[in-house]
Design brief:
There is one protein chain. The chain has 28 helices and 23 strands. The protein is of the alpha+beta class and 933 residues long. Strand 18 and strand 19 form a beta hairpin. It starts with a helix and ends in a 17-residue tail after the last helix. This is HD-GYP domain-containing protein (C-di-GMP phosphodiesterase class II)/HAMP domain-containing protein.
Length: 933
């Protein structure tokens, strides 16, 4: 059949199904079109009816809101309150005013302003207003605000009442300065007459936004009565009139001010103003705003004709006729279901006609697209189609086996599993069931059984050597392996022996071991040999990397006799806590999971987290007292005290020889001896640095250090080159020369020079994001500088050296050519001194920028440091002491709360303690104490 004729053919199954489907699509489209047209007509009619009803409802609602206050105001303008000139007279009307306040939820205050400046107001105290008057007495229901002018001065008074109008507090307010005559509500009512409705404004006392109804007294010119109505109350009333959730409803005056709205103040009222602009049209307005269609209507409200108010309504078109759309949707769904049923029926009929040929064509097509895992065989009554499917199915299985071998060779990670996969696929290709792979040991010069599949064979073969050729090796193997195996020698790229593959040939026609089969297995085994060599190299390199890491960690621990084991214990504790985090399904750890690469990356980072300590001087890490450098310099100072002690003896002997009073000289010598003993004991005590040094102690150290002793020997002899450079440029004094007992000499300080680390944020060489401030000098070994350390034993320079180890850790690890799956090792290893509040080092990272493994590393490092018993400057804490300190660190934003609580809740701290702490450190812990904020 030629190509042009073939391309003109149409599938029978497609023709049947397409005919039925096309008919249903046309019928459904006609029906839906008619329904849509009817719905559009109904939408306009419904919108017009709805907006007229809303306007009537708004008028009724405004009347219901304003009439009660207006009625109450009409009654009050005729009452005695308008003529009352004194506060007692006005207080007699409190019950009437209280009844007015209680008669309506929207009335917040009733008041009167007089032409002499007096003011009398009674206000309800509700939940919202009590927050604006936070110091109201308990049980207050009403607040009376009174202002009376006496002798030209305003006298302010606030009085608080309960529900029964019992006086709770009488509070004079000398600074209450409020003139009602200056307020718009007073001026409008007094000037114009008649009841006045103000525009929205902010009430003087409460800060609320609302409206005021005001009316001049009937027979008392200059007296104006007022009632406040809050906008929030009007908004709540209008919100009840919303026809749909998305409707906009507002009352707007002639100036365009929104007096009340059914929405929050910050909501978008643009659609309402656009409707108001077209109010003269007198019809329903159709608008589009923000991608939505709207129906709008505006009409004047006759509830307050003198205010020229308008009710403006906007309703989303899709909400207005939501029920109609719902009916149309159901109709569409029914029509769709009918079409779907007929479509399925059409496809069923067509598939029954052309199913066998279509299946075969599709599956063969998948073979052309390299889908060899597809089952080709089909059940067909056509003999040729059935036989063709069987042949193609066998071919697909063979090709799939080759693919599986390639996948196993290229993707195998574990050597043992790689060997097992290779053996299984090769056995399957040749149609057998049993086989084995031996690996050659260069050190032991023997073949060792690596994997076997249902084959009983020797575990080792010792009668082989690396120099044997393939034929000799196979002959030797046949002496040890029974049956009919086919052997393939595995050699690497250098043709060195790495192993042997054997397959037991016991099924079908292959027991004859044809040359074609042997060649085939040998070629496949060659690829397997390369993959095995590659995997062995990777595993050996990984083992080498692990060895180097352990070497570095052990070297750091061995460098100091006091921190031995830290680099080993922290990774173990961190891994224990990481395992618990992966098990947890709560809070921060709900979705926390680590891949194998991430887990190995974290493992390396944990072991290398302190590798920078290799650059930190040992005497700084181990500094136990303040004067310690390479040795404890308190011994030098003690020697100077010995000199002063002998000077006292010399002065005594000199006085005796000079004929002075021997008893007085002896007393002076004893006094001086006692003074020197006490001074040295004082210095030695503060050299320990075990407690905080107060200011007076530091001052006394300086006073003791100011004493002088006489030096007779040159301090320029026997110096190192570093010491000579430190005193270069200093003139040597003539001997003998007095020297202070304690001093901070220039040679005690070492400058940074070109060795200053790039840790400042604005340093161009700082590409790691460090944010630290180095001290002015690299070292300062001044005696006063060290002895007056306020906390601990480290100077700022030495503390920076300690902190710099993390900088060196990041720089050292960043310089390594790490593979892609280990690129986070420098960051993971270098963030365990960061804090959740962003005050850690070296980058000042806040907690939200730290990953869960980084937070875990910080907790593990802190707990190990607190409980370690090998530190010279502290004892190892008990469990309860360590957890208590860490709980305090959580409150101060030092470590993460979620990780700490997981650490306690999971019992990880106790399992670690049982392995690494002394029995006396493992005390009883009340875990509930550490689960509280």
């Amino acid at each position: 059949m030629d190509f042009n004729r073939q391309s003109a053919q149409v599938s029978l199954a497609f023709l049947i199904a397409a005919t039925i489907t096309l008919g249903m699509v046309i019928l459904t489209g006609v029906l839906l079109g008619q329904s849509f047209h009817g719905m559009e007509q109904a939408r306009v009619t419904a919108a017009r009816t709805t907006v007229h009803q809303l306007v009537i409802s708004v008028n009724d609602r405004i009347n219901s809101i304003t009439q009660p206050p207006a009625t109450a105001l009409a009654v009050l303008r005729h009452g005695p309150l308008t003529k009352a000139q004194t506060l007692p007279d006005r207080l007699e009307r409190l019950p009437v005013i209280a009844d007015v306040l209680d008669s309506s939820e929207i009335v917040s205050a009733v008041y009167a302003g007089y032409d002499d400046g007096d003011f009398f107001l009674l206000r309800k105290i509700t939940g919202d207003s009590s927050r604006r008057f936070p110091d109201v007495p308990e049980g207050s229901r009403y607040l009376l605000q009174s202002l009376v002018w006496k002798k030209g001065q305003p006298v302010g008074l606030w009085r608080f009442y309960d529900r029964q109008l019992r006086l709770l507090e009488n509070r004079p307010l000398p600074d209450y300065n409020y003139d009602p005559r200056q307020r718009p509500w007073y001026q409008a009512a007094n000037k114009i007459g008649g009841m006045q409705l103000s525009s929205p404004y902010v009430f003087f006392s409460t800060g609320e936004t609302g409206l005021t109804l005001s009316w001049r007294a009937k027979n008392q010119p200059g007296t104006v009565l007022g009632i406040d109505v809050t906008m929030d109350d009007l908004d709540d009333q209008l919100a009840d009139l919303n026809q749909t959730p998305g409707s906009r409803l507002a009352i707007i005056n002639r100036q365009g001010d929104v007096l009340a709205s059914s929405l929050a103040k910050e909501s978008d009222n643009t659609i309402l103003f656009r409707v108001l602009d077209k109010r003269d049209s007198g019809a329903v307005v159709q608008l589009e705003s923000n991608g939505k269609d709207w129906y709008g209507f505006s009409a004047p409200l006759d509830a307050l004709p003198n205010q020229q108010l308008y009710a403006v309504i906007g309703i989303p078109s899709d909400e207005l006729l939501a029920d109609v759309w719902s009916v149309l949707a159901r109709q569409t769904l029914v029509a769709g279901l009918i079409a779907l049923v007929l479509l399925v029926f059409g496809w069923f009929v067509s598939r029954q006609v052309g199913k066998p040929l279509e299946q075969l064509a599709e599956r063969v097509s998948r073979l052309s697209r390299f889908r060899f895992d597809t089952r080709i065989r089909t059940d067909s009554r056509i003999r040729e189609a059935s036989r063709l499917s069987i042949a193609l199915d066998d071919m697909a299985h063979t090709i799939e086996s080759f693919q599986n071998i390639a996948t196993a060779l290229n993707r195998g990670q574990d050597l043992h599993q790689l060997l097992r996969d290779i053996l299984s696929q090769l056995i399957r290709i040749v149609g057998q069931e049993r086989g084995a792979i031996y690996l050659f040991s260069q050190h032991e010069s023997q073949l060792k059984l690596a994997v076997a599949q249902e084959l009983d064979c020797p575990t080792t073969i010792t009668t082989v050597s690396a120099g044997m050729d393939d034929n000799g090796l196979i002959r030797e193997l046949r002496r040890h392996v029974d049956g009919h195996p086919v052997f393939a020698v595995l050699r690497n790229r250098s043709r060195k022996l790495i192993g042997v593959l054997l397959i037991e040939m016991e099924k079908g026609e292959q027991t004859g071991l044809s040359n074609d089969l042997i060649v085939f297995v040998d070629k496949i085994a060659g690829s397997a040999a390369v993959a095995i060599e590659t995997r062995e190299l990777i595993e050996s390199q990984q083992a080498l990397l692990e060895g180097i890491i352990h070497l570095v960690a052990n070297a750091i621990d061995a460098k100091s006799p006091y921190t031995g084991g830290h680099c080993e214990r922290v990774p173990r504790l961190a891994q224990m806590l990481t395992d618990e985090a992966e098990k947890s399904r709560e809070g921060l750890f709900r979705n926390f999971r680590m891949t194998e690469d991430e887990r190995y990356e974290f493992h390396l980072a944990a072991w290398l987290h302190d590798c920078g300590k290799i650059t930190t001087p040992e005497y700084v890490v181990d500094k136990a007292v303040k004067l310690e450098t390479i040795h404890n310099r308190i011994h030098e100072i003690r020697t100077r005290f010995e000199v002063l002690h002998r000077d006292a003896d010399i002065r005594y002997l000199t006085a005796c020889l000079a004929g002075e009073n021997e008893h007085l000289a002896a007393d002076e010598r004893q006094r001086r001896h006692r003074e020197l003993q006490e001074q040295f004991a004082f210095l030695a005590k503060h050299n320990e640095g075990s407690e905080r040094m107060p200011d007076d102690a530091a001052e006394r150290i300086r006073q003791i250090g100011a004493q002088s002793w006489l030096r007779h020997f040159s301090d320029r002899l026997g110096l190192s080159e570093d010491e000579r450079q430190a005193i270069a440029g200093q003139t040597e004094p003539s001997l003998p020369t007095p020297e202070p007992l304690l001093a901070d000499r220039p040679e005690h300080r070492r400058e940074w020079g070109n060795q200053k680390p790039p840790v400042q944020r604005d340093n161009p060489a700082n590409r790691w994001g460090f944010d630290m401030e180095p001290p002015a000098h690299a070292y300062n070994r001044g005696e006063l500088h060290n002895l007056t350390i306020r906390y601990g034993t480290l100077t700022p320079e030495e503390r920076f050296r300690i902190q710099e180890h993390i900088v060196q850790t990041i720089c050292m690890l960043d310089a390594l050519p790490l593979p892609d799956h280990l690129t986070n090792v420098p960051r993971l290893a270098g963030t365990h001194h960061e804090r959740m509040d962003g005050q850690g080092y070296p980058r000042r990272l806040p907690g939200e920028e730290m990953s869960i493994p980084e937070r875990i590393m910080a907790v593990a490092d802190v707990f190990e440091a607190l409980t370690a018993v090998d530190r010279p400057y502290k004892r190892g804490k008990t469990l309860s002491e360590a957890l208590g300190l860490m709980h305090d660190m959580v409150r101060r934003g030092h470590i993460d709360r979620s990780v700490f609580e997981l650490f306690v809740r999971s019992g990880t701290y106790r399992r670690y303690a049982e392995q690494h702490l002394r029995p006396e450190q493992i005390d009883t812990v009340d875990e509930s104490l550490f689960m509280q904020p």
